[in-house]
Specification:
globular; three-stranded mixed β-sheet; single chain; about 180 residues; alpha+beta; tt1808, chain A; six-stranded mixed β-sheet
Amino acid sequence: MAATLAPPRATFADLARADGKAELVGSRVVPLMPTGHRPNVLAGRIFRRLADHADATNRGVAYTDNMGFAVPPLSTGRESFSPDAAYYTGPVPADAMRFAPGPPDFAAEVRGENDYGPAAEAALAAKRAEYFEAGTVVVWDVDPVAGVVRAYRAGAAPVVFGAGQSADAEPTVPGWRLSVDWLMA
C-alpha cells in the first residue's frame, strides 16, 4: 500500500501571494469568486458610509473588499477572513502591508449570483458561525435580490432591515445607520 503525502500546509505568505481574493481555510488557500456589478456597488456603498463614520468619530477603520484579517486557527481550520466591507477597532498591523491581526468587529458579506439556494445558505451560515467563533460581533448578510440586510449577532435571531428602514451594526459601530433604500437604489 503506497503512502499518500498530504499537501503542505498553506501559510499567510502563500495567501499573500494568491492571485485575487482568497482566504486561508483548513490549511489551504481558497480562492473566492469575483463579484458582479450590483454586489460590488453595494459593498462599496457600505464601505463609503463606514469610512465616513470612522473619520467623523475618530474611532475604528473601515476596510474595502479584499482586506485580509488573520485569526488564530478556528475549529474548522479557518485562519483568515476577507469580507466585502468591514469595520475594525483592533491594533493596526505592525507591518502596514500585512493583514489585520484579528477578526473584524463588523463584517458585511454581500451575496453574489451564486449565493442562493440550500447549499449556499448552509455555507453562509457556516461562515457566520466562524466569524462569531473568531470574535466578530455583527455580520451582515446583504441580499440584493430580496432587497434586505440581515444583521446577525452571536446567539440571536437575525434582525431583518428592508425598505424604509435604516440598518445598524450596534453595538459594534455605535451610532452608525445606513438607509436600506439608499443602499439598494
